[in-house]
Design brief:
With 435 residues, the protein is α/β, with parallel strands linked by helices. It folds into 2 domains: 4-196, NAD(P)-binding Rossmann-like Domain (Rossmann fold), CATH 3.40.50.720; 241-427, Rossmann fold (3-Layer(aba) Sandwich), CATH 3.40.50.720. It has 18 helices and 14 strands. Helix 12 (281-305) packs across helix 13. 47% of the residues are buried.
Protein backbone atom coordinates (compact mmCIF):
# COMPACT_ATOMS: atom_id res chain seq x y z
CA UNK A 1 0.00 0.00 0.00
CA UNK A 2 1.36 3.38 -1.03
CA UNK A 3 1.79 5.57 2.04
CA UNK A 4 3.90 8.64 1.32
CA UNK A 5 2.25 10.94 -1.21
CA UNK A 6 2.96 14.53 -2.24
CA UNK A 7 0.33 16.73 -3.87
CA UNK A 8 1.81 19.74 -5.67
CA UNK A 9 -0.48 22.73 -6.12
CA UNK A 10 -2.97 23.80 -3.45
CA UNK A 11 -5.87 25.09 -5.52
CA UNK A 12 -9.33 23.54 -5.74
CA UNK A 13 -8.04 20.31 -7.23
CA UNK A 14 -4.96 19.96 -5.07
CA UNK A 15 -6.66 20.49 -1.71
CA UNK A 16 -9.55 18.15 -2.55
CA UNK A 17 -7.15 15.52 -3.88
CA UNK A 18 -5.10 15.75 -0.68
CA UNK A 19 -8.20 15.08 1.38
CA UNK A 20 -9.14 12.08 -0.77
CA UNK A 21 -5.66 10.57 -0.48
CA UNK A 22 -5.69 11.10 3.29
CA UNK A 23 -9.05 9.33 3.41
CA UNK A 24 -7.42 6.43 1.56
CA UNK A 25 -4.83 6.12 4.34
CA UNK A 26 -1.90 8.02 2.82
CA UNK A 27 0.44 10.41 4.59
CA UNK A 28 0.04 13.46 2.38
CA UNK A 29 2.52 16.30 2.01
CA UNK A 30 0.77 19.32 0.47
CA UNK A 31 3.15 21.51 -1.53
CA UNK A 32 2.68 25.01 -2.90
CA UNK A 33 5.19 27.77 -3.68
CA UNK A 34 2.80 30.38 -2.22
CA UNK A 35 3.92 30.66 1.41
CA UNK A 36 0.84 32.72 2.36
CA UNK A 37 -1.43 29.96 1.10
CA UNK A 38 0.56 27.34 3.01
CA UNK A 39 0.37 29.41 6.21
CA UNK A 40 -3.40 29.63 5.79
CA UNK A 41 -3.74 25.90 5.30
CA UNK A 42 -1.60 25.16 8.34
CA UNK A 43 -4.17 27.13 10.33
CA UNK A 44 -6.97 25.13 8.60
CA UNK A 45 -8.07 28.26 6.75
CA UNK A 46 -9.05 27.80 3.13
CA UNK A 47 -7.72 30.14 0.42
CA UNK A 48 -10.85 29.23 -1.59
CA UNK A 49 -14.56 28.80 -0.91
CA UNK A 50 -15.70 25.19 -1.24
CA UNK A 51 -18.53 23.69 0.86
CA UNK A 52 -17.39 21.02 3.32
CA UNK A 53 -13.70 21.34 2.57
CA UNK A 54 -12.67 23.16 5.74
CA UNK A 55 -14.31 20.48 7.88
CA UNK A 56 -12.42 17.86 5.88
CA UNK A 57 -9.10 19.57 6.69
CA UNK A 58 -9.83 19.14 10.39
CA UNK A 59 -10.98 15.55 9.89
CA UNK A 60 -7.70 14.49 8.25
CA UNK A 61 -5.43 16.91 10.11
CA UNK A 62 -3.09 14.18 11.39
CA UNK A 63 -2.38 12.94 7.85
CA UNK A 64 -1.84 16.29 6.12
CA UNK A 65 1.43 18.25 6.19
CA UNK A 66 1.76 21.63 4.43
CA UNK A 67 5.00 23.05 3.08
CA UNK A 68 6.46 25.38 0.45
CA UNK A 69 9.77 23.50 0.35
CA UNK A 70 10.06 21.17 -2.66
CA UNK A 71 12.95 19.12 -1.26
CA UNK A 72 11.08 18.44 1.95
CA UNK A 73 7.97 17.43 0.01
CA UNK A 74 9.59 15.15 -2.57
CA UNK A 75 12.46 13.35 -0.89
CA UNK A 76 10.50 10.33 0.36
CA UNK A 77 7.43 10.50 -1.88
CA UNK A 78 6.26 7.26 -3.49
CA UNK A 79 3.63 9.15 -5.50
CA UNK A 80 3.68 12.79 -6.60
CA UNK A 81 0.35 14.14 -7.80
CA UNK A 82 0.62 17.29 -9.89
CA UNK A 83 -2.28 19.74 -9.56
CA UNK A 84 -0.66 23.03 -10.59
CA UNK A 85 -2.45 25.55 -12.76
CA UNK A 86 -2.23 25.47 -16.56
CA UNK A 87 -3.83 28.80 -17.52
CA UNK A 88 -4.32 29.90 -21.10
CA UNK A 89 -1.63 31.98 -22.77
CA UNK A 90 -2.78 34.85 -25.05
CA UNK A 91 -2.76 32.50 -28.05
CA UNK A 92 -4.92 29.91 -26.23
CA UNK A 93 -2.06 27.50 -25.59
CA UNK A 94 -1.90 25.92 -22.13
CA UNK A 95 0.80 27.53 -20.01
CA UNK A 96 2.99 24.64 -18.80
CA UNK A 97 5.68 26.70 -17.05
CA UNK A 98 4.59 25.70 -13.54
CA UNK A 99 4.62 22.07 -14.65
CA UNK A 100 8.14 22.43 -16.08
CA UNK A 101 9.41 24.06 -12.88
CA UNK A 102 7.91 21.24 -10.85
CA UNK A 103 9.54 18.65 -13.14
CA UNK A 104 12.93 20.23 -12.44
CA UNK A 105 12.31 19.96 -8.69
CA UNK A 106 11.22 16.33 -8.98
CA UNK A 107 14.39 15.55 -10.90
CA UNK A 108 16.53 17.24 -8.26
CA UNK A 109 14.84 16.11 -5.06
CA UNK A 110 12.84 12.89 -5.56
CA UNK A 111 14.76 9.81 -4.44
CA UNK A 112 12.38 6.86 -4.23
CA UNK A 113 12.92 4.18 -6.92
CA UNK A 114 9.59 3.20 -8.47
CA UNK A 115 8.16 6.70 -7.95
CA UNK A 116 4.96 7.46 -9.86
CA UNK A 117 4.36 11.02 -11.05
CA UNK A 118 0.65 11.45 -11.80
CA UNK A 119 -0.55 14.55 -13.64
CA UNK A 120 -3.96 15.70 -12.47
CA UNK A 121 -3.64 19.14 -14.05
CA UNK A 122 -5.46 19.56 -17.34
CA UNK A 123 -2.77 19.33 -20.02
CA UNK A 124 -2.63 18.82 -23.80
CA UNK A 125 -2.06 15.30 -25.17
CA UNK A 126 1.62 14.41 -25.00
CA UNK A 127 2.39 16.56 -21.95
CA UNK A 128 2.81 13.67 -19.49
CA UNK A 129 5.36 12.06 -21.78
CA UNK A 130 7.06 15.45 -22.15
CA UNK A 131 7.08 15.78 -18.37
CA UNK A 132 9.05 12.55 -18.09
CA UNK A 133 11.74 14.00 -20.34
CA UNK A 134 11.95 17.15 -18.26
CA UNK A 135 12.36 15.13 -15.07
CA UNK A 136 15.05 12.93 -16.61
CA UNK A 137 16.97 15.99 -17.81
CA UNK A 138 16.92 17.43 -14.28
CA UNK A 139 17.88 14.23 -12.47
CA UNK A 140 21.11 14.48 -10.52
CA UNK A 141 20.98 10.78 -9.71
CA UNK A 142 19.16 8.44 -12.06
CA UNK A 143 16.43 6.16 -10.70
CA UNK A 144 13.42 4.48 -12.23
CA UNK A 145 10.08 6.27 -12.18
CA UNK A 146 6.84 6.23 -14.15
CA UNK A 147 4.45 8.94 -15.30
CA UNK A 148 0.67 8.76 -15.37
CA UNK A 149 -2.30 10.94 -16.25
CA UNK A 150 -5.23 11.00 -13.83
CA UNK A 151 -7.42 13.91 -14.98
CA UNK A 152 -9.90 15.44 -12.54
CA UNK A 153 -13.60 15.97 -13.11
CA UNK A 154 -14.42 18.11 -10.08
CA UNK A 155 -17.13 20.75 -10.21
CA UNK A 156 -16.55 23.80 -8.07
CA UNK A 157 -19.21 23.90 -5.39
CA UNK A 158 -19.59 20.10 -5.31
CA UNK A 159 -15.93 19.09 -5.46
CA UNK A 160 -15.94 16.79 -2.42
CA UNK A 161 -19.02 14.90 -3.58
CA UNK A 162 -17.49 14.52 -7.03
CA UNK A 163 -14.21 13.28 -5.56
CA UNK A 164 -15.80 10.62 -3.38
CA UNK A 165 -18.77 9.67 -5.57
CA UNK A 166 -17.74 10.57 -9.10
CA UNK A 167 -18.88 8.94 -12.33
CA UNK A 168 -15.44 7.56 -13.16
CA UNK A 169 -11.73 7.66 -12.48
CA UNK A 170 -9.49 7.82 -15.53
CA UNK A 171 -6.00 6.33 -15.23
CA UNK A 172 -3.61 6.69 -18.13
CA UNK A 173 -0.19 5.22 -17.52
CA UNK A 174 2.95 4.47 -19.48
CA UNK A 175 3.18 0.93 -18.10
CA UNK A 176 0.98 -1.74 -16.57
CA UNK A 177 2.67 -1.68 -13.18
CA UNK A 178 1.99 2.02 -12.59
CA UNK A 179 -1.61 1.63 -13.76
CA UNK A 180 -2.24 -1.27 -11.40
CA UNK A 181 -0.64 0.56 -8.45
CA UNK A 182 -2.92 3.57 -8.98
CA UNK A 183 -5.92 1.32 -9.49
CA UNK A 184 -5.26 -0.40 -6.16
CA UNK A 185 -4.86 2.96 -4.44
CA UNK A 186 -8.19 4.36 -5.66
CA UNK A 187 -10.28 1.16 -5.67
CA UNK A 188 -11.60 1.63 -2.08
CA UNK A 189 -13.53 4.70 -3.28
CA UNK A 190 -15.83 2.37 -5.22
CA UNK A 191 -15.81 4.62 -8.29
CA UNK A 192 -15.64 2.93 -11.73
CA UNK A 193 -12.05 2.99 -13.00
CA UNK A 194 -11.16 3.16 -16.68
CA UNK A 195 -7.54 2.52 -17.62
CA UNK A 196 -6.05 3.71 -20.88
CA UNK A 197 -2.88 5.19 -22.40
CA UNK A 198 -1.40 8.58 -21.48
CA UNK A 199 -2.57 10.50 -24.55
CA UNK A 200 -6.14 9.20 -24.36
CA UNK A 201 -6.42 10.07 -20.67
CA UNK A 202 -5.26 13.62 -21.34
CA UNK A 203 -7.68 14.04 -24.22
CA UNK A 204 -10.66 12.60 -22.29
CA UNK A 205 -10.68 15.68 -20.06
CA UNK A 206 -10.61 18.14 -22.95
CA UNK A 207 -13.20 16.21 -24.94
CA UNK A 208 -15.54 15.97 -21.94
CA UNK A 209 -15.45 19.69 -21.21
CA UNK A 210 -15.85 20.60 -24.88
CA UNK A 211 -18.90 18.36 -25.17
CA UNK A 212 -20.54 19.80 -22.04
CA UNK A 213 -19.84 23.33 -23.26
CA UNK A 214 -21.45 22.42 -26.58
CA UNK A 215 -24.62 21.26 -24.76
CA UNK A 216 -24.84 24.61 -22.96
CA UNK A 217 -24.32 26.60 -26.15
CA UNK A 218 -26.86 24.45 -27.98
CA UNK A 219 -29.66 24.92 -25.44
CA UNK A 220 -28.94 28.66 -25.37
CA UNK A 221 -29.34 28.77 -29.15
CA UNK A 222 -32.68 26.99 -28.80
CA UNK A 223 -33.66 29.50 -26.09
CA UNK A 224 -33.11 32.40 -28.46
CA UNK A 225 -35.30 30.67 -31.04
CA UNK A 226 -38.03 29.98 -28.48
CA UNK A 227 -38.28 33.66 -27.67
CA UNK A 228 -39.14 34.34 -31.32
CA UNK A 229 -41.42 31.42 -32.17
CA UNK A 230 -43.07 30.84 -28.77
CA UNK A 231 -42.83 28.20 -26.06
CA UNK A 232 -40.76 27.66 -22.93
CA UNK A 233 -37.13 26.54 -23.09
CA UNK A 234 -37.42 24.75 -19.74
CA UNK A 235 -40.07 22.47 -21.22
CA UNK A 236 -38.01 21.97 -24.37
CA UNK A 237 -35.00 20.98 -22.28
CA UNK A 238 -37.06 18.62 -20.11
CA UNK A 239 -38.49 16.90 -23.15
CA UNK A 240 -35.04 16.56 -24.70
CA UNK A 241 -33.46 15.32 -21.49
CA UNK A 242 -35.96 12.47 -21.13
CA UNK A 243 -34.18 10.85 -24.06
CA UNK A 244 -31.43 8.77 -22.44
CA UNK A 245 -29.21 9.35 -25.46
CA UNK A 246 -29.23 13.09 -24.65
CA UNK A 247 -29.67 13.35 -20.88
CA UNK A 248 -30.89 16.34 -18.89
CA UNK A 249 -27.61 17.66 -17.50
CA UNK A 250 -26.16 20.89 -18.91
CA UNK A 251 -29.40 21.74 -20.71
CA UNK A 252 -30.18 24.77 -18.55
CA UNK A 253 -30.49 27.92 -20.62
CA UNK A 254 -28.91 31.07 -19.20
CA UNK A 255 -26.22 33.68 -19.72
CA UNK A 256 -23.62 31.06 -20.65
CA UNK A 257 -20.79 29.19 -19.01
CA UNK A 258 -17.76 30.63 -17.24
CA UNK A 259 -15.23 29.48 -14.67
CA UNK A 260 -11.65 28.34 -14.94
CA UNK A 261 -12.20 25.13 -16.91
CA UNK A 262 -14.50 25.38 -19.92
CA UNK A 263 -13.11 28.61 -21.47
CA UNK A 264 -9.48 27.66 -20.83
CA UNK A 265 -9.81 24.04 -21.93
CA UNK A 266 -11.68 24.88 -25.11
CA UNK A 267 -9.00 27.41 -26.07
CA UNK A 268 -6.27 24.86 -25.37
CA UNK A 269 -8.07 22.14 -27.35
CA UNK A 270 -8.48 24.44 -30.33
CA UNK A 271 -4.79 25.40 -30.10
CA UNK A 272 -3.73 21.74 -30.12
CA UNK A 273 -6.03 21.02 -33.07
CA UNK A 274 -4.69 24.01 -35.01
CA UNK A 275 -1.12 22.93 -34.29
CA UNK A 276 -1.89 19.56 -35.87
CA UNK A 277 -3.90 21.13 -38.71
CA UNK A 278 -7.20 19.56 -37.59
CA UNK A 279 -10.42 21.56 -37.80
CA UNK A 280 -12.87 21.38 -34.86
CA UNK A 281 -15.86 23.36 -36.14
CA UNK A 282 -18.25 22.09 -33.43
CA UNK A 283 -15.88 23.13 -30.64
CA UNK A 284 -15.35 26.52 -32.30
CA UNK A 285 -19.12 26.95 -32.58
CA UNK A 286 -19.58 26.17 -28.87
CA UNK A 287 -17.06 28.87 -28.00
CA UNK A 288 -18.66 31.45 -30.29
CA UNK A 289 -22.13 30.52 -29.10
CA UNK A 290 -21.20 31.21 -25.49
CA UNK A 291 -19.74 34.61 -26.37
CA UNK A 292 -22.87 35.39 -28.38
CA UNK A 293 -25.12 34.47 -25.44
CA UNK A 294 -23.54 37.04 -23.16
CA UNK A 295 -23.95 39.73 -25.84
CA UNK A 296 -27.54 38.60 -26.28
CA UNK A 297 -28.26 39.05 -22.57
CA UNK A 298 -26.66 42.50 -22.54
CA UNK A 299 -28.82 43.52 -25.50
CA UNK A 300 -31.91 42.19 -23.73
CA UNK A 301 -31.16 44.37 -20.71
CA UNK A 302 -30.65 47.39 -22.94
CA UNK A 303 -33.94 46.72 -24.71
CA UNK A 304 -36.18 46.25 -21.66
CA UNK A 305 -34.52 48.74 -19.27
CA UNK A 306 -33.81 51.59 -21.70
CA UNK A 307 -32.66 54.23 -21.13
CA UNK A 308 -29.96 52.86 -18.82
CA UNK A 309 -27.88 55.98 -18.25
CA UNK A 310 -28.20 57.22 -14.68
CA UNK A 311 -30.12 54.18 -13.45
CA UNK A 312 -29.19 51.97 -10.52
CA UNK A 313 -29.09 48.23 -11.27
CA UNK A 314 -28.75 45.43 -8.72
CA UNK A 315 -26.62 42.51 -9.93
CA UNK A 316 -27.49 39.43 -7.89
CA UNK A 317 -24.72 36.87 -8.13
CA UNK A 318 -21.17 37.62 -9.21
CA UNK A 319 -19.44 34.21 -9.14
CA UNK A 320 -19.66 32.12 -12.30
CA UNK A 321 -21.82 29.54 -10.46
CA UNK A 322 -23.27 29.05 -6.95
CA UNK A 323 -21.30 27.58 -4.03
CA UNK A 324 -17.99 29.05 -5.15
CA UNK A 325 -16.17 32.36 -4.89
CA UNK A 326 -14.57 31.88 -8.31
CA UNK A 327 -14.83 34.93 -10.58
CA UNK A 328 -12.66 33.56 -13.39
CA UNK A 329 -14.44 34.13 -16.72
CA UNK A 330 -17.71 34.78 -14.88
CA UNK A 331 -20.43 36.14 -17.21
CA UNK A 332 -21.03 38.86 -14.63
CA UNK A 333 -17.73 40.52 -15.59
CA UNK A 334 -18.69 41.28 -19.20
CA UNK A 335 -22.25 42.18 -18.22
CA UNK A 336 -21.22 44.59 -15.46
CA UNK A 337 -18.63 46.21 -17.72
CA UNK A 338 -21.35 46.74 -20.32
CA UNK A 339 -23.61 48.32 -17.68
CA UNK A 340 -20.84 50.65 -16.54
CA UNK A 341 -20.24 51.69 -20.14
CA UNK A 342 -23.92 52.65 -20.32
CA UNK A 343 -23.58 54.95 -17.31
CA UNK A 344 -25.30 52.59 -14.86
CA UNK A 345 -24.67 52.61 -11.10
CA UNK A 346 -24.14 48.92 -10.28
CA UNK A 347 -24.89 47.42 -6.86
CA UNK A 348 -23.40 43.91 -6.73
CA UNK A 349 -24.29 41.17 -4.29
CA UNK A 350 -22.75 37.72 -3.84
CA UNK A 351 -22.58 35.69 -0.61
CA UNK A 352 -19.05 34.40 -1.35
CA UNK A 353 -17.37 36.20 -4.26
CA UNK A 354 -17.28 39.83 -3.10
CA UNK A 355 -13.58 39.76 -2.18
CA UNK A 356 -12.63 38.41 -5.61
CA UNK A 357 -15.05 40.80 -7.33
CA UNK A 358 -13.32 43.76 -5.65
CA UNK A 359 -10.05 42.67 -7.26
CA UNK A 360 -11.73 43.07 -10.66
CA UNK A 361 -14.04 46.06 -10.26
CA UNK A 362 -12.38 47.85 -7.30
CA UNK A 363 -14.58 50.84 -6.42
CA UNK A 364 -16.25 51.11 -9.82
CA UNK A 365 -19.29 49.30 -8.44
CA UNK A 366 -20.91 49.21 -5.02
CA UNK A 367 -21.07 46.03 -2.93
CA UNK A 368 -24.14 45.09 -0.92
CA UNK A 369 -24.09 42.79 2.09
CA UNK A 370 -27.58 41.42 1.44
CA UNK A 371 -30.04 40.94 -1.40
CA UNK A 372 -32.38 43.45 0.20
CA UNK A 373 -29.68 46.11 0.33
CA UNK A 374 -28.89 45.56 -3.35
CA UNK A 375 -32.53 45.80 -4.40
CA UNK A 376 -33.40 48.85 -2.29
CA UNK A 377 -34.04 51.84 -4.59
CA UNK A 378 -32.61 50.02 -7.63
CA UNK A 379 -34.41 50.44 -10.94
CA UNK A 380 -33.85 46.85 -12.04
CA UNK A 381 -32.29 43.57 -10.93
CA UNK A 382 -30.16 41.20 -13.01
CA UNK A 383 -29.84 37.63 -11.72
CA UNK A 384 -26.51 36.15 -12.85
CA UNK A 385 -25.85 33.37 -10.32
CA UNK A 386 -28.54 31.02 -9.01
CA UNK A 387 -27.56 31.07 -5.33
CA UNK A 388 -30.23 29.37 -3.15
CA UNK A 389 -30.96 32.57 -1.24
CA UNK A 390 -31.63 34.39 -4.51
CA UNK A 391 -33.91 31.59 -5.74
CA UNK A 392 -35.75 31.65 -2.39
CA UNK A 393 -36.36 35.41 -2.45
CA UNK A 394 -40.09 36.07 -2.52
CA UNK A 395 -41.60 37.80 -5.57
CA UNK A 396 -43.21 40.25 -3.16
CA UNK A 397 -39.76 41.36 -1.95
CA UNK A 398 -38.71 42.26 -5.49
CA UNK A 399 -41.96 44.15 -5.97
CA UNK A 400 -41.58 46.13 -2.74
CA UNK A 401 -37.85 46.88 -2.78
CA UNK A 402 -37.21 47.77 -6.42
CA UNK A 403 -38.04 51.32 -7.43
CA UNK A 404 -39.66 50.04 -10.61
CA UNK A 405 -40.00 46.26 -10.24
CA UNK A 406 -38.06 44.99 -13.25
CA UNK A 407 -36.15 41.69 -13.07
CA UNK A 408 -34.10 40.13 -15.86
CA UNK A 409 -33.30 36.57 -14.82
CA UNK A 410 -30.19 35.27 -16.55
CA UNK A 411 -30.44 31.89 -14.82
CA UNK A 412 -34.16 31.13 -15.16
CA UNK A 413 -34.24 30.42 -11.43
CA UNK A 414 -37.48 32.24 -10.53
CA UNK A 415 -41.09 31.51 -11.45
CA UNK A 416 -42.33 33.77 -14.22
CA UNK A 417 -45.93 33.14 -13.14
CA UNK A 418 -45.29 34.06 -9.50
CA UNK A 419 -43.17 37.09 -10.32
CA UNK A 420 -45.73 38.54 -12.73
CA UNK A 421 -48.58 37.79 -10.32
CA UNK A 422 -46.73 39.90 -7.73
CA UNK A 423 -46.57 42.82 -10.15
CA UNK A 424 -42.97 42.37 -11.26
CA UNK A 425 -42.00 43.00 -14.87
CA UNK A 426 -40.07 39.74 -15.35
CA UNK A 427 -37.89 38.58 -18.23
CA UNK A 428 -35.99 35.29 -18.47
CA UNK A 429 -34.00 33.34 -21.05
CA UNK A 430 -35.94 31.30 -23.61
CA UNK A 431 -39.51 32.17 -22.77
CA UNK A 432 -41.80 34.01 -25.14
CA UNK A 433 -42.66 37.18 -23.23
CA UNK A 434 -46.19 37.21 -24.67
CA UNK A 435 -47.10 34.10 -22.70
Amino acid sequence: MMKKVTVAGMGYVGIVTSVVLAHLGCEVTCLDTDSCKIDQLKKKQLPIFEPGLQTALYTYDHQLTFTNQSQEAMADAELIVIAVGTPALPNGEADLRALHTLADDIGKYATQPGLIVAVKSTVPPGTSQQLKGWIEQAQEKEFSFSVASTPEFLREGTALADAFKGDRLIIGAENKEAAQTLESLYQPLGIPIFMTDLHSAELIKYASNAFLAAKISFINEMARLVEKVGGNIADVATGMGMDQRIGSQFLQAGVGYGGSCFPKDIQALLHVANKHEVQLPMVEAAKRGNERQIDYFINKVKAVASPLAGKQVAVLGLAFKPNTDDMRNAPSISIIEAMLNEGVKVIGYDPAATVNARLIFTDRIHYATSIEEALQNSDAALILTEWPEIKDMSPRSFQQLLKSPLVIDGRNCLSATDMRAAGVQYYSIGQNERM
